[in-house]
Amino acid sequence: MWFLKVTRKEFLELLGKESATTIKTNELLSIQNLNRKRLAKGSILLVWEFEPKVNPPCLVITPDSELKDFLAWATTYLPSFKPFTAFFKTINLSLFKIYNSYSNSPNFNSYEDVCAGMVISEALTQIPLSANPNVITPTACKSTVSYCYIQAICRGISIEGIEEIIRRWKTVRSITNQPKRSLSVTEISILGRTLENLILERPLAKNRLGFEENLYKACKQIRENGKCSAEIWNEITSGNEKLNSIPDLIKGTIEDRIQIFNRAIQYLKSFNKISNAQSSFVCGYFASLIKPGSLEHFSLIKSQLSSFPTSLVWYGFLTGLNKNNMILAIFDNLGRRVLRDLMHNRELVSTPSSDISFDELHMRFSSGEVKYNFKKNYTNSLQVELVPNIFSIIRIIDKEVSKGEDKYKNEKFVSNFKELGHQINKLNEIYSILRTESQLDRPDIKTKGKAERTKHKQLTLL
């Protein structure tokens, strides 16, 4: 990487000229001596992956306290680059030093199927019970909080960094008035922390809930042996004998297993000695035993989400732990698409792929500017980079555009409806003519008509 320290005025001049004519090699800094340099107020660092020639910088680094001010300045003085962070990744110096130490290549530690199962299952919670699961798109999967968790975990981001990413995910959805999700971040975070321990093999954090260690151990055993040990299961169920016996009862035909599952869930609803998080895990585990390795029976759990909020996500998570699972092939290979996108290598010093960064979006909304009047990757969605190389997708509805489209659609409908009525009237006229002509040409109709006229005359005489 190569760095050039400039003022904002020099940056404006640089964008207006060919880089090769304005940058001298001896002005560039290498990564080795960056830490010895400090950014003065009003200055910025421009970053290239390779020694610059005619290409613009990939990354702009600001002093720690000036990021918001710089983005506001760029919005005013660089209208040709709108939004600015769609063309230049822009972060402060401290964040650059942190994220430059993380891996660009994701490491799943052989838990790829678990990641795909967790994301898809969370997306399933957002569709109606009667909906076809094939309606779920990769875009919908990228909007989940699970997707953010996995992006961060697989790049080895610290616990504090993950918490900040999730905070930004919540903020983006809040300031853009996204529909409320059926699952809270707090509920999903238990699965996120479990996955974090499995992939990164980190020790349990101090803020973990007491039962989370048992959930982690159960997942490790399911991965290695295909089932949870009696000892750990006893801890999870608080020693309840009936719940302890159910995993061994879910056998026989699929129909038999479904009946046992339904009875077990009814009992679980009345059992209040364990937390909702534990009950959701138990429900998800029972479902994963109906047809191991498959999400085919997700509708059985979806109808129970009011009682066991994260049970469906646990179902996908635990199904992914099965070594013979079919997660990647389900719903028209949706799992493969999700995993493909998660596995992308993302260089810190590279051209942005998102529509806008969290900081610029937040700055725009803070200033009262809520229009999405710029080019986007998706027609009705916005890809937001929460932190370098970690993004989420939100749905957007531009009220101005929406009103115009509605008016156009209404006018078009009225016009088409009138034309349809006109054509129907013409068809009726043609039909009447053809019907009359066909009746006059039929001998039986003529004879019948003459007989009826004679009969009418006879009746009249009487």
List keywords for this structure.
single chain, 462 residues, alpha/beta, 3 domains, five-stranded mixed sheet, three-stranded mixed sheet, 21 helices, 8 strands, disordered C terminus
Describe this protein's structure:
The protein has 21 helices and eight strands. Helix content is 55%, strand content 8%. Strand 7 and strand 8 (390-395) form a beta hairpin. Helix 4 (67-77) packs across helix 19 (358-366) and helix 11 (212-225) packs antiparallel against helix 12 (230-236). It is flat, with a radius of gyration of 32 Å. Residues 400-406 and 455-462 have low confidence and may be disordered. The strands form two sheets. A five-stranded mixed beta sheet has the order 2-1-3-4-5. The chain has a three-stranded mixed beta sheet with strand order 6-7-8.
Q: What share of the residues does DSSP label as strand, in percent?
A: 5-15%
Work out the helix count. 21
Q: Main beta sheet, described?
A: 5 strands, mixed
User: What is the count of β-strands?
Assistant: 8
Task: Give the strand line-up of the largest sheet.
Answer: 2-1-3-4-5
Work out the helicity level: 40-55%
Intertermini distance: 115 Å
Query: Any idea how many domains?
Result: 3
CA gyration radius, whole angstroms: 32 Å
Oligomer: single chain
- SSE series: EHHEHEEHEHHHHHHHHHHHHHHEHEEHH
Structural class by helix and strand composition:
alpha/beta
